[in-house]
């Protein structure tokens, strides 16, 4: 077991039973001209975490952790997209509508791809999820159980939507969860800070939060590894 400094207190984990989960680092959320930008968001905030996610991936890969990437995505016929999930956005910006990078949040469209800078390597898991959380309708829990995974380290976007939802789902399923501060971001900086505060309040009610260098030091990586 390894223990690292975290908030509100140390996060102890066994690397052999730990997976890194990178949530939804997709072109549609992070690139200019994508879904996130079309909704009026400033994507430069999200792009700023790309180096940290790259370093985190390098650290996890070097340590032999299971690496999992998720994508928020739907079938082309939208059979896995409940009407309630489409209804909120203005016409032309709904899931399945034609956007600047193809049909919004539809599997196989260019915008649905993971950013090339943080692309999965062969053998890493890619989980397509129709919800904000990574367990809903994905079969992930069974796959993690088969691998004996008990600890999950989180990164990705956006902190208060898909990252937090996935972390809460994981916490309810008994996983011990850690979020890496520099490797997650929101379109709304105050929402990120509020989310970190929510996660770590009440003795770490949803998990723990650590700085990237704490994990790198524990796993024997250097700070600027890429
Ligand atoms: N991945 C994810 O967080 N999906 C979202 O829709 N996030 C927003 O902040 N909109």
TrEMBL record:
Record's protein name: Cysteine hydrolase
Molecular function in Gene Ontology: hydrolase activity
Gene3D superfamilies for this protein: Isochorismatase-like
Superkingdom of source: Bacteria
Domain Isochorismatase-like span(s) in chain numbering: 18-210
Keyword Hydrolase on entry: yes
SUPFAM superfamilies: Isochorismatase-like hydrolases (SSF52499)
Keyword list, A-Z: Hydrolase
Organism: Pseudomonas neustonica
């Amino acid at each position: 077991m390894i223990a690292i400094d975290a908030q509100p207190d140390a996060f102890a984990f066994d690397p052999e039973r730990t997976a890194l989960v990178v949530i939804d680092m997709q072109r549609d959320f992070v690139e200019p001209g994508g879904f996130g930008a079309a909704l009026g968001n400033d994507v430069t905030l999200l792009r700023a975490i790309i180096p940290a996610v790259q370093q985190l991936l390098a650290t996890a890969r070097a340590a032999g952790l299971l690496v999992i990437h998720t994508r928020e995505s739907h079938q082309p016929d939208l059979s896995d997209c409940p009407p309630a999930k489409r209804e909120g956005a203005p016409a032309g910006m709904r899931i399945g509508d034609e956007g600047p990078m193809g049909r919004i949040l539809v599997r196989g469209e260019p915008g649905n791809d993971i950013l090339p800078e943080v692309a999965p390597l062969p053998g890493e898991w890619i989980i397509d999820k129709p919800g904000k959380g990574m367990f809903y309708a994905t079969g992930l829990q069974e796959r993690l159980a088969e691998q004996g995974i008990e600890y999950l380290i989180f990164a990705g976007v956006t902190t208060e939507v898909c990252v937090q939802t996935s972390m809460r789902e994981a916490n309810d399923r008994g996983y011990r969860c850690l979020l890496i501060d520099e490797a997650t971001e929101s379109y709304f900086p105050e929402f990120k800070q509020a989310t970190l505060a929510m996660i770590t309040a009440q003795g770490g009610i949803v998990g723990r939060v650590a700085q990237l260098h704490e994990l790198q030091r524990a796993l024997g990586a250097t700070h600027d590894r890429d």
